[in-house]
Amino acid sequence: MKVAIVGGGPSGLYLGLLLKRGAPQWNVEVIEQNPADATFGFGVVLADTGLLQLREADEASYQALCAATKQHEHQIIVQNETPIDIHLPIKGGAIPRLTLLQILEQEAERAGVVVHYRQRINDLDGLVSLGLDDADVVVGADGINSVVRQAFSEAFGTTTSYLGNHFAWYGTAKVFEASALVFRKYRGGHFVAHYYAYSDQMSTFVAECDDATWQRLGLGELSDTQLQALMEEIFAPELDGATLLDGNAKTMWRQFPVIRNRHWSHGRHVLVGDALASAHFSIGSGTRIAMNDSIALAKALLACDGDVAAGLAGYEHRHKPSKQKLIAASERSYLWYEDMARWMEAYSPEEFVYRFMTRTGRVDDARLQREYPELMVRLGRAGSMA
Ligand SMILES: Cc1cc2nc3c(=O)[nH]c(=O)nc-3n(C[C@H](O)[C@H](O)[C@H](O)COP(=O)(O)OP(=O)(O)OC[C@H]3O[C@@H](n4cnc5c(N)ncnc54)[C@H](O)[C@@H]3O)c2cc1C
């Protein structure tokens, strides 16, 4: 079997690795527009619950990822200038996105996957010069602006819409002790910073505001440099003199695209990761959701005995229900953030944190009591199941 994977992000490299481990005789090639030592963004959160699925799929990469992950034990939520400290019950932490990719690349290449770096394809004709146009399977692992998806958007039943909130993905050389969410009112606007350390040198710092704030304060008129200076001013107490850094192109201020596809494959073309469904960053799970798609697709292809159509149908049929649960959680989470101004005005810090913790519907009071007993005491809800 010959498999062409467009996109050498987490989903593409991981899929290549799993396929080659399962079928060393297959020809598996990944096409990536960036050089091997470059990517967008800074560090990403990898929570323990997601990591366990990676362990089952491939022990070597799981061990390497764990070793490079900076653990987080606490999260602080600041609302109305009141910090509430949350002891995190599950292990997990954050990893530089580049390290994550380098680990996957190393494991993939060790397994025999060919990775073509600095090869951007603008449409599927771009596969010809690489000798991959006759691949049995062409995988769109090429993220939010997927060219594989765009080539057949009608057949995939693609829908794209944009959230109202505006955000930018910065980094900073300040190493925060705990991960945090700081909700702050500033000149009548509503802002939030999501930040966490992902190495002993760097932290991720995502800044966000709602659309009403963006319009009222005329933020669309400001340059990226001015916006960055404004965030440094708003979050000066946390940054404590450290500056924000913008990374590669994807750090500019933008609105999050919600991408969905009614069908996951079309002929020999199939989608995984953000190309298939963009998972909002506020649940800190987009990477592992994308890698879970790769696990499911690899299983389906390895079991299909050369019947690609059956393999791709099986991938969608078996994996869709669990993927939809996570995507639904991501949707409830971003809808909560879309309304953050309302919650910031309406709730006490304790009520705010309670509403935040239960926003996706995946955590109820019983789970809070079990996993966050100290927090429930702090919120005045210990023993209450209301
Ligand atoms: C601000 C922000 C914060 C986030 N924080 C987290 C977090 O804490 N934890 C988490 O798990 N997730 C997080 N995410 C989400 C996560 O980054 C994505 O869900 C994840 O990267 C999806 O992986 P992917 O492989 O599907 O796509 P991508 O990571 O987008 O990879 C796609 C790859 O394809 C390449 N490519 C694209 N087009 C072409 C082309 N035409 N030719 C060749 N190559 C191409 C790209 O260069 C890229 O390497 C965050 C996202 C954002 C925006």
How would you describe this structure to a colleague?
This protein is of the alpha/beta class. Among the domains are: 2-70 and 91-161 and 257-336, FAD/NAD(P)-binding domain (3-Layer(bba) Sandwich), CATH 3.50.50; 358-386, no CATH class. Helices cover 40% and strands 25% of the residues. It contains 15 helices and 17 strands. The protein has helices at residues 10-22, 48-57, 59-67, 97-111, 147-151, 153-156, 211-216, 224-234, 236-239, 286-302, 308-338, 340-346, 349-357, 365-371, 373-378; strands at residues 2-6, 27-31, 43-47, 70-71, 74-79, 82-87, 92-96, 114-116, 137-140, 158-172, 179-186, 189-197, 203-209, 244-246, 254-261, 265-266, 269-271. The strands form three sheets. Strands 5, 6, 10, 11, 12, 13, 14 and 15 form an eight-stranded mixed β-sheet that branches. Strands 8-2-1-9-17-16 form a six-stranded mixed β-sheet. The chain has a three-stranded antiparallel β-sheet with strand order 3-7-4. Strand 16 and strand 17 form a beta hairpin. The longest helix has 31 residues, at 308-338. The termini are far apart. The chain binds flavin-adenine dinucleotide.
